[in-house]
Design a protein that fits this description.
alpha+beta, single chain
């Protein structure tokens, strides 16, 4: 179940499920809004699509928090950030899906 907040870097991001209306120019199902400290996720997605979209937006938040998309950063161009975040989200989703032991292992190891 999707929670209402998630901590990313120094910020607590509010998670909102909203109605998205994709157009021919914008087929997104989620959005990270740095100024509002929110992640918006489209209502009505299948669980796998929602989880992948949520991970995608978390990665955008990580890119923002790390400064990778700041002027001079490796992901300064919006299209570079989008391609990178999409590739990482899709790949990481597959790793987690096909290796059920992986997330509990990471959580145990990282919590000390």
């Amino acid at each position: 179940m999707l929670k209402r907040k998630i901590k990313v870097g120094y910020d607590d991001l509010e998670i909102k499920k909203i109605e998205f209306h994709p157009s021919k120019d914008n087929d997104s199902f989620g959005e990270f809004k740095s100024a509002a400290s929110t992640i918006e996720i489209a209502k009505g997605m299948q669980p796998r699509q929602e989880a992948n979209t949520f991970l995608h937006e978390i990665l955008h938040a990580c890119v923002y928090q790390s400064g990778l998309n700041s002027e001079g950063g490796a992901l300064y161009k919006n299209e570079d950030e989008e391609v990178t975040v999409n590739a990482l989200a899709n790949s990481f989703s597959q790793v987690v899906r096909d290796n059920q032991w992986f997330l509990p292992y990471l959580q145990k190891g990282l919590s000390g």
